[in-house]
Amino acid sequence: MTTSTPTRTTSSLILYTALPVDQNPAAVYIASLPAETGQRTQAQALRVIASTLGTDISLLNWGALRHQHTAAIREKIAQAYSPATAKKILSALRRTLKQAWRLGQMTAEEYNQAIELEPVAGETLPAGRELSQDEILALMNACQADATAAGTRDAAIIGVMYAAGLRRDEVVKLNVDNYDPETGKLILTGKRSKQRTAYINNGAADALNDWLTIRGTQLGPLFVEVNKGGKVLIERESMVVKPFKKIRGVDVPNKKAGQTIFRGGALTSQAIYNMLYKRAQQAGIEEFSPHDLRRTFINHLLDAGADIATVSKMAGHANIQTTARYDRRPEEAKRKAAELLHVPYKTPKVG
Fold first, then answer.
1. Burial 111-123, CB ≥16 within 10 A → b, else e
2. Euclidean distance between CA atoms 208 and 103, whole angstroms
């Protein structure tokens, strides 16, 4: 008869065979996360932790970790990674151990002792980059130069990501009925299913309304796939790949013949990433991440004099300290202060 009792090695930290998924604290924790991107990020953090002990997520006996183990892990992580990254990795460790406690694999006392770790000190420079107004303009021009429905859609996506500071997962969750064209009100669903409102106006509203004219107001995902022929695919459809495909008028055997593929419906997070990469290349600007648009939204509002508490609410941050980490104004202030000093050095004349 199969049981879920871990089969341990002599060290008790490494399992000979993996536990069932519903008994693996790491798997349970990752499954509890709402967003696909968040799951990937935290799974990678847990892989880093497991690797410090010479194993992987599935064979690490998370419930056997005690304070001496987690303290050693913390030391290795703090030495190998920046303070910000180390904190995120250790946060994943704490949350996984909480699942181990909930699964009955460690006592409350063992859990509390294991997560009692010295904080990782130090600060890192702000991650990512901020786009300039000229770069935003270049992106919108690149989209508008594309006369297909995809060009209008992409302009609307970039517009709302910049104007409302949306995460890419928030973009793909938007439905048509989340937006009121009359008032510009947009209802967003963020992390941990928390809802907030944003208001879309001026150029962003124009782009979004133009997209809706093409897409139509049929209920469903707001941003959907557009095929190569320019057809808007609101409904998710399945199709079986045909045995042959035409290349320059010649029938060529299709390697994927017989496979079922899906097209249409809401864009994926990866599709948003790919679209921004493509439009950045077309616009001739430096590559940027989807989150850089969110950084730009926050910093441009702060530069314009918006109150940081208001910006924090608009960004959907749980506390104002998170918003403060995006603030690049202190760096700009240091740059301007440095310009006040003059070094009296003259370059020698050649010859």
1. beebbebeebeee
2. 47
Residue type present at position 267: L
Contact 257, 242 (CB under 8 A): yes
* pLDDT (tens digit per residue) in 124-158: 656 678 899 999 999 999 999 999 999 999 999 99
Structure tokens at 252: 């060529």
Asked whether 180 and 250 are in contact (CB, 8 A), the reply is: no
Largest CA distance in the chain: 91
Angle made by CA atoms 102, 105, 106, in degrees to the nearest 5:
85
| pTM score above 0.70 | no
Q: H-helix or E-strand containing 162?
A: helix 149-164
DSSP character at residue 175: B
Query: 3-state DSSP: the chain helix, strand, coil percent, rounded to 5?
Result: 50, 10, 40
**Residue 88 token pair:** 């995120």
